[in-house]
Amino acid sequence: MRTKRCSNVASETDEMFGFRSGSDFTFDEFQRYAYTFKESYFGIQDAKEGSNAGETKKKTWKPSVEDIEGEYWRIVEQPTDEVEVYYGADLETGVFGSGFPKALSVVTGNDSDQYAMSGWNLNHFPRLPGSVLSFKINSSPMVYVEMCFSSFCWLVEDHHLYSLFPNWGDPKVCYGVSGSHAPALERAMRKHLPNLFEEQPHLLNELVTQLSPSVLKSEGVPLHRAVQHSGEFVLTFPRAYHSGFNCGFNCAEAVNVAPVDWLEHGQNAVELYSKQCRKTSTSHGKFLLGSAREAVQALWELSVLGKKTTRNMSWQSVCGKDGMLTRAVKTRVRMLEERLDSLPICLKPQKMERDFDLNNGRECFSCFYDLHLLAARCKCSSDRFSCLKHAKLFCSCDINHRYVLQLHTINELNMLVEALEGRSEAIIWASEDTTDMHTTRLDHESGMFHKRIKSCDPRET
Ligand SMILES: [Zn+2]
Ligand SMILES: [Zn+2]
């Protein structure tokens, strides 16, 4: 089956797998095209099977969702049948508009105000209290204009984020596999499409592979199916593979969401991306530290000022010794500590400049790992950095020319964890401006990391 994407450039991989850039359509033109296609497609199918030749021209038979589903998988599984459909994918709401009204600064009393103000409005959803995406500037929804058989192939969201999409128009059939069974789905894909994976080892990142639910079931992959009708929302969970197709003309909007419990999934995602040398689209370290700073501020306001606002209470609920935010920060700090400990060579510590990754994320030259908290560099290059795993591949310069850049020392990060756990002194300490704090303390405080580096620096012995 071929899908032509409208108003969107198809990548080389898209082209290889039958996705091509299509013509430009207006919304109305697309709608008319979609209706005509479906009518004639199923009319013809019906006519072939119809017994009375005189009745074949105008049939009013409407295929059910199950009829369309059967036909869809028949086409996908029989590559000799060529069916071409169009799909307006990943259209930016900033350019093409959103189906949800934007909140006006003045509430007018119109009916549309309730939709403008609603938390279910996709324009606000990613920035609701408790969502760590509020630290990311660009989290606008995308629009999808679809027709019968236009499909979305098996995918997980970038950074294993949650996604939320409402549907308007004809039903959308969605299949889902829970995050815990993602590796099972990947194994099944590799087993059934060995040649494709040989050509393109990270094929699943390209969103071009469809495999039928019956094949996945036969491989023991637990699968869920949902028919999404007009006005219904579908929420996908971290690393939950999903795919599907449309039963006719419809329009969907989708946005990624990151409640605090996503942080640990996002951490797993960046570790996986580093192993696959896959580029990250956003800095996980910024999300993590941004969330921790907001939370500490909230804890300070609660304990010192007694400000029991919804926002403050919401942050408090993810803190404490066992809180999910505390756990996520602790896991990352332990990980940093282990990486520093296992460095095969000793690198000199250096304070990370404030503007190190202020405007653009910095990534490892080798695996694209996010370097917001820690990076390695050498005097021989001013714009090349690496993660600690790849510090040894950096260059062949003398070790004295190489540095480890730290945003915060391990001691500072441990204090941050203690603040999140609720220790009063740590809350007061961490609620100060952390940026100013680290510029003065990194050089003066003999942190654990600082000490360790000193003790193995050949010039110190
Ligand atoms: Zn790396
Ligand atoms: Zn060098």
From TrEMBL:
Any one of the GO BP annotations: chromatin remodeling
PROSITE patterns associated with the record: JMJC
A Gene Ontology term for the protein's cellular component: nucleus
UniProt cross-references to Pfam families, sorted A to Z: JmjC, zf-C5HC2
Sequence ranges assigned to domain JmjC in this UniProt record: 114-274
Superkingdom of this protein's organism: Eukaryota
Gene Ontology molecular function: histone H3K4me/H3K4me2/H3K4me3 demethylase activity
PANTHER family: LYSINE-SPECIFIC DEMETHYLASE (PTHR10694), LYSINE-SPECIFIC DEMETHYLASE JMJ14 (PTHR10694:SF105)
Protein name from the UniProt record: JmjC domain-containing protein
